[in-house]
Specification:
Elements: E1 8-16, H1 21-33, E2 38-43, E3 47-49, E4 60-69, H2 73-86, E5 101-107, E6 112-113, E7 118-119, H3 128-138, E8 142-143, E9 146-147, H4 148-151, H5 155-158, E10 162-164, E11 174-180, E12 185-188, E13 191-192, H6 197-207, E14 211-215, H7 216-221, E15 232-236, E16 247-249, H8 252-265, E17 271-275, H9 277-283, E18 287-295, E19 303-304, E20 311-319, E21 322-329
Parallel strand pairs: 11-17, 11-18, 14-15, 14-17, 15-16
Antiparallel strand pairs: 1-4, 1-5, 2-4, 3-4, 3-10, 6-7, 8-9, 12-13, 12-19, 18-21, 20-21
Length: about 350
Amino acid sequence: MKAQAAAYRIWLSLGANLGSRGETIREALRKIAAIPATCLCQVASFYETAPWGKLDQPGFINTAAVVRTKIPVIEFLHATQRIERELGRVRHEHWGARTIDIDLLAAEGQQWDTEELRLPHPYLTERAFVLYPLRDIAGSLVVQGKPVAAWCEEPGIKAQEIALAAELNSPWPLRLVAAIDENRGLGCHGHLLAHIPADMARFKALTTGQVVIMGRKTAESLPGGAPLRERINLVLSRSLSELPGFILCHDLADLWQKLGELRLEYPAKQFWCIGGGEVYRELLPYVREAEITRLSGGYEADTWLPDLSEFQLTGETEMEQGSFQRWLRIDRERDDNGNIS
């Protein structure tokens, strides 16, 4: 019987300076999380940095991540290179502009010095855009005899321009709230499955004073077609040109820009996705936390919440008509076929 490979950690740096930079990095992270026998454990905030090496190009969005994997480091390197190609990376020139760049920084218990791979990365301790995000998730990681946090205090590193990205700088910036039945039904003919006072009170408590994101049908179903009071109301719609009282976003890039502007103006506000089904499907990959009211039994439904297979139930409180559940994103290990184990 073949012995089970032991899991070990790899630290990564990700950067992009072409197109929708933050969204490209989020897509790269989702693809990394899908590598067989690999778990995406932690991701740093996104940082904005000036170009490195070749200066006549746009600025970068950079972040760092740590994975736990059971596949050999060279095999993991090849998997990240495939992800780069899938996302449009073409290696035209050294240090040039690129859609996405994924670098292996260090591998637990391993050192490499080959033409294909050098670990630790030879420039790791020279670049603020590598060190600052890495400090967020691995400040105590020792590289060349000194912790990453200590390298960040070096005068040459502190002199480099770097700051949290002005655009939305969290890899999973959204929260989700929904009420569903036992079959994940959300609604029928544009209406909720049930009007339960405890659920309404919970929704109000979670979202009052916050930012809520919804689709056109959800906005039109609100009482009087008016925005929810004491909340900033955003509508994600490709067809609407105007909706009084609402901030319109015509695509994801537009949404990220407006949320980034709101984050700068209101740094403490949370971003809640409140439906309907199409918006839940589109925004679920960007959700960190889901607050779910689980109704007992089944209802007639024509809209359903997407599967929460990428989340883990972390808390549940019973109520008369069901329960209140809290789900958190968890990047679990996948088997050799890429399936969550």
